[in-house]
Known about the structure:
Layout: H1 3-21, H2 52-55, E1 60-62, E2 68-71, E3 74-80, E4 88-96, E5 107-119, E6 122-127, E7 132-133, H3 137-146, E8 150-156, E9 167-171, H4 172-176, H5 183-191, E10 196-209, E11 213-223, E12 251-262, E13 281-286, E14 296-300, E15 321-325, H6 334-342, H7 345-350, E16 357-361, E17 377-381, E18 389-390, E19 393-395, E20 402-410, H8 412-417, H9 434-438, H10 443-451, H11 456-475, H12 482-503, H13 518-521, H14 524-530, H15 561-571, H16 579-587, H17 600-603, H18 625-645, H19 656-676, E21 682-684, E22 697-699, H20 702-716, H21 726-731, H22 748-763, H23 766-774, H24 790-801, H25 804-807, H26 813-830, H27 832-835, H28 841-862, H29 869-887
Parallel strand pairs: 7-13, 15-16, 15-17, 17-20
Antiparallel strand pairs: 1-2, 2-3, 3-9, 4-5, 4-12, 5-6, 6-8, 10-11, 11-12, 13-14, 18-20, 19-20, 21-22
Helix pairs in contact: 6-12, 11-12, 11-18, 11-19, 18-19, 19-22, 20-24, 22-26, 24-28, 26-29, 28-29
Amino acid sequence: MSRSVLASAALLALAALAQAQTPPAAPATAASGPTAASPARPPADPTAPKPFAEIIRGAKEQPGLFPIWRKDEKTWIEIPKDQLNKPFLFSVNVANSIGERGFYASQMIGDEMAEWRRVGNQVQLIALNSKFRSDTASNKLAVAQAFSPSLISGGPVASAEHPDRKSVLVDASGFLLHDIPGYSTRLEAAFRLPYAPDRANSFIEATRADAQVTTLTARVHFATPRIPAPPLVAAPVPLPTPPQATPDPRSMFFSFVYSFRALPAQPAAIRHADPRLGHFMESYSNLGDDLRINPRVHLVARWRLEKKDPSAALSEPVQPIVYWMDKNIPAKYRESVKAGILEWNKAFEKIGFKDAIVAKQQPDDADWDNMDSTHASVRWFTGSDVGFAIGPSQRDPRTGEILDADIGMSDVFGRGTRRFATDDVRPGGHGHDHHEHNGWTGARSSLALTEQHCTYLADQANEFGFALDLLALRDGMDLNGPEAEALAQAVMKDVIMHEVGHTLGFKHNFRSSTTVTQAQLKDKAFTEANGISNSVMDYNAYNLPLMGEPKASLTNTTLGAYDYWAVEYAYKQIPAEQEAAELARIAARSTEPQLAYGDDFDQGVGGPFDGFDPRSNQRDLGDDPLAYAKKRLKLSQELWERVQARKPQAGEDPFRARRSVADAFRQLGMTANNVSKYVGGIQAERIVPGVTPGQAFKPVDNAQQREALRFIASGLLSSNSFKFNPEFVAAQTLDYNEWADRGQPLSIPDAVAGVQGRVLDRLMSPATARRLIEQSSFLPEAQRKGAVSLSEVYGTLQTAIFSELKTGAEIDRMRRSLQREYLRRLQAQLNRATNGAAVYADAFSMARYHASQLAKELRVAAAKPGLSVETRAHLVETQDMLDSMLKATLTRS
């Protein structure tokens, strides 16, 4: 008999024995029918969330607004039921980055008002739409239906609801280890490579929580599968190089600091903005009243500042504005940073606050950082191509209350400014694309970071190199001596005052430098007491004297009159019933000369906002910007002369002299743009109808326009302004140890072309042509005679650029380059297919008329005997190009 048969027989015998030993069941009665029997337990749902206690068994809790639970590599966020559908502030900062092309550490990205929503067993993190609102209950539903919120992240609940805590868990990794900030797009924009987050190699690296904020830091790995081979044929537009600062350009890590911060239970009092002052704003459309002419509402962005003793003339605040100074700030700069922060207390004391602002130093051995959304800070960071400071802030969208602010300070000050003469790291390598790469994807924050865009430190670093070289070569100042050290500390304080101003809610004021006279700038006692400008929010040039002029403060030493005014409007405590009248009184002071104001758009940000008021500029100084432009050219020429006369020293940076030359050209490039604003310029005043007297727009005085034209023609467009010895140019070596920075031999014509191109771009632009044509419409009939015309500008420009045609002189390389650049822009003016409606018909016909005159002059000049073959070839080529342009088929409309 087989084993299986024996086993079956044994089992049957055991079953029979068990049945014999079991007593028989009692017969069923009517009272104990089927309904009295225990129901069968349904099978468990395999998809149902596991019990809360089972999930967190062995995990450690961090109590807080949203408690955090951690166990091994697992992290959960606990969401109480009563916190669902309740708004909070969700913000993102970058703690670690790659150090190039706009991707830097210690940066504030942005924020959105958000809330948790539960849909079945799904939890969503929703960004609320705060751009459109209604102040009437009857219309709130319609507004909510019209404008969608956005999903930041989502995922399944990780646990069933806790029976006592009434909360659920969500997996933090599932929510946060993907591309919330949209960095894949920014990386592609910077490097033109398809980077994507790699979840498998990303993790939650740090967490903390308290009653006000819950913060998690996600270490996210971004990667691209391959770096494509370079094209066989060069692309028409050069492609950017792959990342240079990472060991492998295919792989990089970012640490994103995500903060979930409770909004104030009692919203702060709002204050409406006034266009006559420059405050950052929380703006939205109020669609609650269809009778409003303009539904836009603009609230002043400001910290909540309230007196402990409202009746006292001078009182400490209930809660001061506290700035934590990052432990990465070098010890030698900390006192200057602190001084720049606390300087603003002078303005707050004027409106009754004692110690409104406090500066605290993070201990060097601190094991915490200030990257969450509850520590306003000054952070010191570095990068391979970095050179800027920035002062962004985060605010309550409901009221405009500033809740957090983080000043980012690049170490370019220590390297590119303090040791600029001997170091080879160029500041400002990020150009103007910092916010394009680091801006938060949310519309609110993108706008906020755009308006807070600041290159003050980068410009300071460039100009400081210029100033140090000039002072060292003129006066023998030791770059390592006490005088240079004192200047470096003064510049540090100046930059910090500027950036703290941004974090207090103040925009740039690019017109304030024109409210100090030339005589005051030469008065040392005046500048030490009042600074060199009436606002630290301007991009003030250094107060460098010409040779033989008296010396005064080189940079800003204190707040200006405008800064006190801006603080008063935003922060003065006013009884509610008096607020409207008092704010109107404060704003009405805008006509006082010291309070002149012009923002980024006034000075020019590009496109249609090219800046047409020559009083609103970056990097000018004094009440006569045209006079300053002439002074700047003289200062540049002096530096060039002294650099050429200086003998190089053994062991110094091989690029030192080249940098001195480049610094002067860089500053002169800004001057070229500023002085060109006079031509066709319009002075703009911030007029409030029925309140502010005067004109909103007034053309620049004709005499000033013509003086600017003469300076451009005889100064900036003249080769005589740029004299360099051939021996000096030939002696400028390269850095043969650094392939990437080796570059080419020094080219003065190319540098000059950069400055002159700024002039041509503005004077030959459609916007300038339009203003010249239309400026008479701003003037009474009696004042129109003698106005600067478009024909006069084009004729003056063309005569200056082609002056050799009448004199018969040779045309050198520098002048040939200028003439070609002129023709290139003239071709754009004559090409209606590319210009379309951007160019007025009058501007087109005027450009064509002067081009025809030039063609005649070229034919005569080319026939003159005795010219070199280079000049003759250039004239023939220029004539042929111009003839082709004039003969081209026009697109008539």
